[in-house]
Amino acid sequence: MKEIKNIVFVLVILIFMVGMANAVTITGLSDVSTTDKTPTINFTVTGNNSSYECNLLINGVAFGSVTATNATETSITCNRMLEIGSYTYNISVYNNTEIPATTYSSDYTLEITTMFSGVINVINGIIPIFDSLADLIIASMPLIMIIIFATILARLMKLYIDIGIERFGKQ
């Protein structure tokens, strides 16, 4: 019976230690939309160590690293320029004393936009985008025909007025 109590005690201690070992948390992250092509991501790492090695992962590739102090807001700036578009990012945190040695944050969206993204989106909603100049010209034909017709009509009206003035004289 005493052996069973000792085994239970050891198991409780192990469970407690494993629970403490998994105590690394990464907070303060969220989806990001920015015009900055080398964005800075802010976060806080909390755990049992005084510091942690952290990486900014964008689409699974490291784009920056920093040593984070425990329970202190930290920033990682992307070390390469990103193209305009949508990416997935997360933070990996490494330590050599806690289990697991590497902890990953959840995935978040990183959207790199232009200063004019809102205007471009409005324009794209009104004016369709064409694959070629030929498509644009074909789609514009009705408008082109109206402009040509209006120009011809305006010239004919001016000619008619000029002929009337010549024929009947100025009054």
Describe this structure in words.
- The chain is of the alpha+beta class and 171 residues long.
- It folds into two domains: 93 residues, Immunoglobulins (Immunoglobulin-like), CATH 2.60.40; 39 residues.
- The protein contains three helices and nine strands.
- The strands form two sheets. Strands 2, 4, 5, 7, 8 and 9 form a six-stranded mixed beta sheet that branches. Strands 1-3-6 form a three-stranded antiparallel beta sheet, with no helix packed on it.
- The longest helix is centred in the last third of the chain and has 36 residues.
- The chain is rod-shaped.
Distance between the termini: 129 Å
Q: For the record, what is the CATH homologous superfamily label of the largest domain?
A: Immunoglobulins
What percentage of the residues does DSSP assign to strands (E)?
25-35%
Overall form: rod-shaped
Helix and strand string, N-terminal first?
HEEEEEEEEEHH
Largest sheet: 6 strands, mixed
Q: How many structural domains are formed by the residues?
A: 2
Supply the CATH class of the largest domain. Mainly Beta
